[in-house]
Amino acid sequence: MNSIAGINLTRFILLLLVQVVICNHIDFLGYINPYIYIIFIFLFPIREERLALLIVSFLLGLLVDLFSDSGGVHAAAAVSLAYIRPILLKSSFGMLYEHHSIKFSTTDIGSLITYISLGTVIHHLVLFSLEIFNISNILITLKKTLFSSIFTTLLSVLIIILFSRNRK
Question: May I ask which residue range the UniProt record assigns to the signal sequence (predicted)?
């Protein structure tokens, strides 16, 4: 196993464990739930096959669903995020994505925050729409999406900055 696969496997397991053991038990005011397992999808290598990302994202979401007893909503939201990831990368990083030269440890912090924020909002909107699945509760869905997205984005950016090697 090469070092990139080892790093991704370690990241997969650690984020899954932190999500299941710590983050699934945080429910602040009924609206704020951090879902940091999506960091794995954000940081998955760009040069890897897109089908591999979709399959691994489904597996990650399915494992979170199994531990959370949530019936598949995390798997659907994770696959949705993985599917739309190239569009997010292109809109956030532009030409760096075109040339496959994005290194998250050396990119502009504004582009990183844009990328994480857009992806988190999309993931959470899909997640809470499927979880609540009732048009009459659209305000609750939007509140949960907004507040959880803000909290998850802050945590995700902090984790990425703290654990990246070459951040200035």
Answer: none
Q: Is residue 50 part of a domain?
A: yes
- Residue 167: pLDDT band with limits 50, 70, 90: very low
Nearest-angstrom CA–CA distance, 78 and 68: 14
Distance of alpha carbon 147 from alpha carbon 27, whole angstroms:
11
pTM, whole model, 2 decimals?
A: 0.89
Tell me the pLDDT of the chain averaged across its residues: 87
Residue with tokens 């988190």: 120
> What are the φ/ψ torsions at residue 45 (nearest 5 degrees)?
-55, 135
pLDDT digits (tens, 9 = 90+) for 99-108: 565 666 667 8
Q: Is residue 105 part of a domain?
A: yes
CATH number at residue 102: 1.10.1760
Q: Which two tokens stand for residue 13?
A: 């397991």
Domain count, the chain: 1
Let me know: does 79 contact 44? Beta carbons within 8 Å: no
